[in-house]
Amino acid sequence: MTKTVIVGTNHAGIAAANTLLDNFDDQEVVMIDRSNNLSYLGCGTALWVGRQIDSYEGLFYTNREDFEAKGARISMETTVERVDYDKKEVHCLSKTGEAFIENYDKLILATGSVPISPKVPGRDLENIHFLKRFQDGQAVDQILGSENIENVAVIGAGYIGVEIAEAAKRRGKNVLLFDAMERSLPSYYDKWFTDDMDTILSEHGIDLHFGELAKEYKGDKKVESIVTDKGEYKVDLVINAIGFLPNNELGKEHLELFKNGAYLVDRHQQTSDSNVYAVGDCATIYSNALQDTTYIALATNAVRSGIVAGYNVGGVALESTGVQGSNGISIFGLHMVSTGLSVEAAAKNGIEVKYTDFEDLQRPGFMKQNANVKIRIVYEESSRRVVGAQLSSTEDISGVIHMFSLAIEEKVTIDKLKLLDIFFLPHFNQPYNYITMAALSAE
């Protein structure tokens, strides 16, 4: 028997455990997590907090019993204090204070990420929260239920910040959204798209404070105001959503790290220690758009990396196909999806690109149900391979992004898309489809 210890039981750890337990009979699997629950879909927190779904129960997609039934041994509410990589020992401390050691043949680190916590004065005041774990969502949900909470400051206008700002607004609060950047969602979309998102946020009463940096929190025990480089604002609750850093605490002294501190892994999810694998938000990933190793913290990437690690630990050599970082967001009815690189991201990574834009109705003008669609296709100037795509509409255009994801993975050129066989039916689309029209208008 091969004993595999998995530290961390969210998306990546669960995918690795399932792969090992479902496909290999010679595996003894031990799962360790400091939380009291596993498999929480954090991307659903804002839906629950904003009362767009009835309860949080459905955000847990598996449970401890499922894994124990397959033969796994699980230690929840258990902290891993350290790992002795020479002796292949995981040193643990249980909730009751009992210290114990788990030996391993193979170790899978699925320790995820930790919220960025700026060292600003007043950060220890009450009613300043992060959003990461289920317990964080519970705490924010409970506070928003209080009539004493009127003004909510959200720090960070990335995906989580924008989503929780919408949720707090849906709960009837005055919401102030802050970001040091000049617009929302700059990591995933170019300005042509984020201008629409910023408009939607403003139209729904969210007070945008972009290009403002939080300098201090003030208050007596509880937070009462936030001070930025441009002013001071009365607030009753602060939700920090600035971003995340890889949680490398257990291996940073032993394992090779990426420039942002993530565990550097190969296409098999193997670290610089051949007996140790790293998956999910604590590890690097290969980007097909960049054609290089990078860091993209997304649940879908976590699942895929866990599957790859599981097979390799089990003895089946499986190489990751790489990722595109496909993602999406839906705020007050505006849907935006993207994959690969934006024009701005390409420039930051030193890739010379061109792009082609097109805007049209989803369906022919005579159709009653209709909406505007915007599309941008980004392609490398030299090779003309597609490296990114962005779409937005109040229609559900999300399925289109999967095609672009595959196009990036397969190094499809912009010219190949010009005469792509796309069906037409008025119920769905136009005879001159916006994908075709965007590709045809490329230089």
From the structure above, extract its key features:
single chain; 443 residues; alpha/beta; FAD/NAD(P)-binding domain; Enolase-like, domain 1; five-stranded parallel sheet; 10 helices; 22% helix; 28% strand; globular; oxidoreductase activity; flavoprotein; oxidation; redox-active center; EC 1.6.3.4
- By DSSP, the count of extended strands is 25
Work out the radius of gyration. 23 Å
Question: How large is the share of residues in beta strands?
Answer: 25-35%
- Major β-sheet annotation: 5 strands, parallel
The CATH topology of the largest domain = FAD/NAD(P)-binding domain
Sum up the overall morphology in one term.
globular
CATH superfamily of the largest domain: FAD/NAD(P)-binding domain
Provide the CATH top-level class of the largest domain: Alpha Beta
Structural class: alpha/beta
Query: Separation of termini?
Result: 59 Å
Helical fraction: 10-25%
Low-confidence stretches: none
CATH architecture of the largest domain: 3-Layer(bba) Sandwich
* Overall number of structural domains: 3
Total number of helical segments? Answer: 10
Mean pLDDT: 95
Strand order of the largest sheet: 3-2-1-7-18
Structure overview:
With 443 residues, this protein is α/β, with parallel strands linked by helices. It contains ten helices and 25 strands. The chain folds into three domains: 2-114 and 245-314, FAD/NAD(P)-binding domain (3-Layer(bba) Sandwich), CATH 3.50.50.60; 117-242, 3-Layer(bba) Sandwich (FAD/NAD(P)-binding domain), CATH 3.50.50.60; 333-440, FAD/NAD-linked reductase, C-terminal dimerisation domain (Enolase-like, domain 1, 2-Layer Sandwich), CATH 3.30.390. The strands form seven sheets. Strands 3-2-1-7-18 form a five-stranded parallel sheet. A hairpin with a 4-residue loop joins strand 4 (79-84) and strand 5 (89-93). The radius of gyration is 23 Å and the shape is globular.
